[in-house]
Amino acid sequence: MTGPSIVWFRDDLRIADNPALRAALDRGEPVISLYVLDAESDGVRPLGGAARWWLHHSLASLDARLRERGSLLILRRGPAERVVAETVRDAAAGAVLWNRRYGEAERAVDTALKAGLREDGVEVESFAASVLFEPWTVRTGVGDHYSVFTPFWKACLALPAPRAPLPEPREVPGPARAPATDDLDEWSLLPTDPDWAEGLRETWEPGEPAARRRLRAFLDDDLGSYDAARDEPAAGATSLLSPRLRWGEISPYTVWHETVDAARSGRHAASAHRFLSELGWREFAWHTLFHFPALADKNLKPEFDAFPWPRLRPTMLEAWQRGRTGIPLVDAGMRELWRTGYMHNRVRMVVASFLIKNLMIDWRRGEEWFWDTLVDADTANNPFNWQWVAGSGADAAPYFRIFNPELQAAKFDPDGRYVARWAPDADERDQIVDLRETRQAALEAYEAVKRAR
Predict the structure, then answer these.
(1) What's the pLDDT at 397?
(2) What's the mean pLDDT when you consider all of the chain?
């Protein structure tokens, strides 16, 4: 069927290494680039505040990139199945192309839309773009999915290597008459009353060009210290690519191949290997979500349903959220999160362990807070990592492995630089709980889980 090609952008806000966009260009018809803000389809999780802030700026960047190449980004909101179909009719489109998503609700939308469009004679095709190894391609010897990271990643590495990234198109020819579009500002993705995003603006520059610059800076300047210093929150040795990957401003294929190239050139092979395994952890999160869609709501290990969570104490939860626990490393992490929409991964584990195992607050309350405040929160990695710390998830740390925030600070922030930056007023005399007593209480509560096995 002839007619313009619609490229439906989702979590792939880039023009380089975008298979759906490349396929549309190969069709030889004008290209309509579409983004749908969908908070209405059944089961699709509405974005948190920090994510909405990032999305606004990433969409603006993508629109500018497309305009430079002869097109523009069409914005529409509503249930995606209906909105995409309406756009097809408005534009008399002959094809709709997108890059695949892996959450259950998103896949249901895509499957229904694909069936409906094909019945109408519209060409529909989807592509792999946001993960290196699609979840159904990695199987155990008996054909099951994996629940432990090390054999999962070993199986991934035994598969054919990830494909090379696709080049960035120089031109994206738009239609002679573009469909109607919403005004991005009218979506009200940015906070206004109050405007709490000052720290995000100071910290981040969303968009594909900034993502590319960040990758190059990491590989050129930081990769060498990654293996040795990645657990030190004040060292600045991490890639800071997680929000870039979450929004697809850069593809995992680009990150993979440029890291491999750096290692082959003789630079920092050990650090490169370690960093690639962190990409593998991201893959494992999506693998787990695909096979266990209720990851944000239900314990992956059902025996944890027996855990005797006490009644929620709102004052304790708020103290944790605001970084007012009297535990310096915890408070520093939570204040970094509130200010920047980000937290160092080592500190994420510490603050999560403190909430679950010292405050005895259900991991789902912490996951919800991170969902609202992290710029890199996605439907796989956020709940996956919370369940890992809780002990209820895949490849989980045993529940009795409780991160002592004082020992963690002594080991990974020995000179106190991280705490001094984010929580200089934290005073251990103001601790809201006793670490030793609450650790023992958590271990005693864990006995209920052991009895449920």
Answers:
(1) 64
(2) 96
Q: Which two tokens stand for residue 6?
A: 């619609």
Provide the whole-model pTM.
0.97
Residues 175-222 pLDDT 10s? 999 999 999 999 999 999 999 999 999 999 999 999 999 999 999 999
In this prediction, residue 395 carries a pLDDT of 77
Phi then psi dihedrals of residue 3, to 5 deg: 125, 165
Domain boundaries, the chain: 1-129, 131-161+208-291, 302-452
Determine the CATH number of domain 1-129: 3.40.50.620
Euclidean distance between CA atoms 401 and 353, whole angstroms: 9
DSSP string, 135-154: GGG---TTSPPP-SHHHHHH
> First-to-last CA distance in the chain?
57
Tokens of 157: 């590495």
| pLDDT at residue number 392 | 93
Please classify residue 183 by burial: count the beta carbons closer than 10 Å to its beta carbon, then call 0-12 exposed, 13-18 middle and 19+ buried: exposed
- What CATH topology corresponds to 302-452? DNA Cyclobutane Dipyrimidine Photolyase, subunit A; domain 3 (1.10.579)
Compute φ and ψ for 447, nearest 5 degrees: -60, -30
